[in-house]
Write a structure and sequence with these properties.
mainly alpha
Length: about 190
């Protein structure tokens, strides 16, 4: 089914359209949700809540052309993930890094070639490894395009905390990428 057909059918409560919605969008929505809450039962629950809310809320959906259904569902998945994190605020607490110089915030940025050498799945796995608070701010700022003021409002934190968590997330991710590249180079044998 095409996107417009799925939207129209879901608005009418048609089981075939609802199944097509799930088949077409659940994997993408799960990828979005995992970026915020991690893998596992919680992600499955947030996905289910997102789809139930979508099916109940189709009267609010406005068709704006191709991609609008996916965008609407993705925004809903982000909001449901943030709702879960707000309800479990302890997950958003900042993680303090050891302030010793060797473990400080500054990490050598990976080169563009290093980052381009990562496949998307591996990069997303590295992002998933970030502590929840770091990962949430990183996703909202770098992927969703939120400002620090919007993030602070969404998460109930200060603008400075948002900015600090982003800086720490980027530094931690840079270290993870550098470590991954170093491990990969150790296993690389010329001529293979």
């Amino acid at each position: 089914m095409e996107e417009a057909e799925i939207a129209t059918g879901c608005r009418r409560g048609e089981a075939k359209a609802q199944r097509a919605l799930y088949d077409s969008y659940a994997p993408r929505l799960m990828a979005t949700i995992v970026r915020y809450v991690g893998r596992g039962d919680v992600a499955q629950d947030v996905l289910q809540d997102t789809l139930v809310r979508a099916l109940r809320g189709f009267s609010q959906f406005k068709w704006r052309g191709k991609g609008s259904l996916g965008g609407w569902l993705n925004r809903m998945a982000v909001n449901m993930s943030l709702n879960y994190l707000r309800d479990n605020r302890h997950m958003l607490q900042a993680v303090s890094l050891d302030e010793r110089p060797e473990a400080g915030l500054v990490a050598e940025e990976p080169t563009p070639a290093d980052v381009e050498g990562l496949d998307l799945a591996e990069l997303m796995r590295l992002v998933e490894e970030l502590p929840t608070g770091y990962r949430t701010v990183f996703n909202l700022y770098c992927i969703e395009g939120y400002s620090h003021r919007e993030i602070a409002s969404e998460l109930g934190i200060s603008v400075n905390t948002s900015s600090s968590q982003l800086a720490r997330a980027k530094a931690m991710l840079a270290r993870k990428i550098n470590d991954y590249v170093a491990r990969k180079e150790m296993h690389y044998e010329p001529g293979n």
